[in-house]
Amino acid sequence: QVQLAESGGGLVQAGGSLRLSCVASGSVYVMGWYRQAPGKQRELVASITSDGTTNYADSVKGRFTISRDNAKNTVLLQMNSLRPEDTAVYSCNARITPGSLWGSWGQGTQVTVSS
């Protein structure tokens, strides 16, 4: 099983930026960032495959950018123009192969955007 280490997050004012980082212990096919706000279901924010194919939630398109360094098994989520509604616990996850399921969830990292 691949272990994931998340970093980044914090408190920022609306309109500000934050960057999240996630390092996997081994190579994986797709890495993604999910988020869960209080009282809401977890949702996929963005994902990226090993060949660079990206997928974004409509709510973050044009504001968030996901990137990946395959050599370092690292994925970054650059979050710009943050809004209060982006406040949530953000968690990194991965699928080892195209046919595998998402792995176990870690603690995640808190992102809080003040208005």
Write the topology of this structure.
Blueprint lengths: L3 E5 L1 E4 L4 E7 L5 E7 L6 E7 L4 E3 L7 E6 L4 E6 L8 E8 L13 E6 L1
Parallel strand pairs: 2-10
Antiparallel strand pairs: 1-3, 3-8, 4-5, 4-9, 5-6, 7-8, 9-10
Give a brief outline of the structure.
By secondary structure, the protein is an all-beta fold. 0% of the residues lie in helices and 51% in strands. The protein has strands at 4-8, 10-13, 18-24, 30-36, 43-49, 54-56, 64-69, 74-79, 88-95, 109-114.
Characterise the protein shown here.
Helices cover 0% and strands 51% of the residues. It contains no helices and ten strands. It has strands spanning 4-8, 10-13, 18-24, 30-36, 43-49, 54-56, 64-69, 74-79, 88-95, 109-114. It has a six-stranded mixed beta sheet with strand order 2-10-9-4-5-6, with no helix packed on it. A hairpin with a 4-residue loop joins strand 5 and strand 6. The chain starts with a strand and ends with a strand.
Instruction: State the major sheet.
Output: 6 strands, mixed
The number of helical segments is: 0
How many β strands by DSSP? 10
Distance between the termini: 39 Å
- Strand % is over 45%
What sort of overall outline do the alpha carbons produce when their principal axes are compared?
globular
Mean pLDDT: 95
Uncertain runs are none
Backbone CA Rg: 13 Å
Helical content stands at: under 10%
Order of helices and strands: EEEEEEEEEE
Coarse structural class: mainly beta
Across the major sheet, the strand order is 2-10-9-4-5-6
